[in-house]
Amino acid sequence: MTSVWRRQLRRISPFLFILPGALLFGTVILLACVETVYISFHDWDGMGAMRWIGFGNYAELIADPQFYVSLKNNLIWLALFMLAPPLGLALALLVNQQIAGMRIVKSLFFMPLVLASVTVGLVFGWVYDPNFGLLALIVQAFGGEPPALLSDENTVTYAIVLAGLWPQVAFCMVLFLAGLNNLSSDLIGAGRVDGARGLAMFRHVVLPQLTQVSFIALAVSVIGALRSFDMIAVMTAGGPFGSSTVLAYQMYEQSIFSYRFGYGAAIATVLFVIMAAFITWYLLMMNRMERRG
């Protein structure tokens, strides 16, 4: 009887360990997602009774010019964040060299990763200040007029994305450093025997072994671009005139400041659909890679 109980316990023990996390995930994530979609079909100020309006919020969203500004800014974030994986790989190759003093250089590149996004936003807000910021001092040293990047509708989004790229590149660098440290010495040795050197070695031997790491860096960069919020809130609060707003910040602004939780939920649902489409594609690609491997 004891042996039967032990076998049964051994079978169910993995599920018992998974159960608390699954319950938490189902309650906090899945239930919240379903509730958000439900709220998006209502007119609700967050306190009173909800009024069913069907697709009214989505119809208003399609006709809202600010929605397209936010969507365009999200696409700008997404396009520029695609620079993070190749830049991270380049830095990883640089700091992975056995050169004296490289540990100090590696620490300097690693530093933005341990800083909070709010801190990075505050630092770059000072750097961009047209009166006494670091950028202004450099431009004035060359006799130029300091630009007000965060006050210009045409440059504000690019300036914030540049600030967001700093820690993102550092994160990708760490991922690629881990990948470089796990390279197969046998494959590298075989490549050297076949005469592979420099770029040929990197292209045909090193890079194929970093495929999975590259996909992880790509996924993290895409998700980071789509959920961009905190640096916008700290640096511009969506200004000037809503020109730096993204979908996540517009959702927050409509829900918290305008008391339009139904409209904010509709924006959140659109953002969720975009992220779900990417995650589905990502999982399919990873599954295909594992089958080939």
Automatic annotation (TrEMBL):
InterPro entries: ABC_transporter_permease, MetI-like, MetI-like_sf. It is a multi-pass membrane protein. Keywords: Cell membrane, Membrane, Transmembrane, Transmembrane helix, Transport. Its main location: membrane. The chain crosses the membrane at residues 12-41, 75-95, 107-128, 156-180, 201-225, 231-249, 261-284. The lineage of its organism: Bacteria, Pseudomonadati, Pseudomonadota, Alphaproteobacteria, Hyphomicrobiales. GO terms for cellular component: plasma membrane. Belongs to the binding-protein-dependent transport system permease family. It is found in: Cell membrane. It comes from the Bacteria. GO terms for biological process: transmembrane transport. This is Sugar ABC transporter permease. Residues 70-284 form the ABC transmembrane type-1 domain.
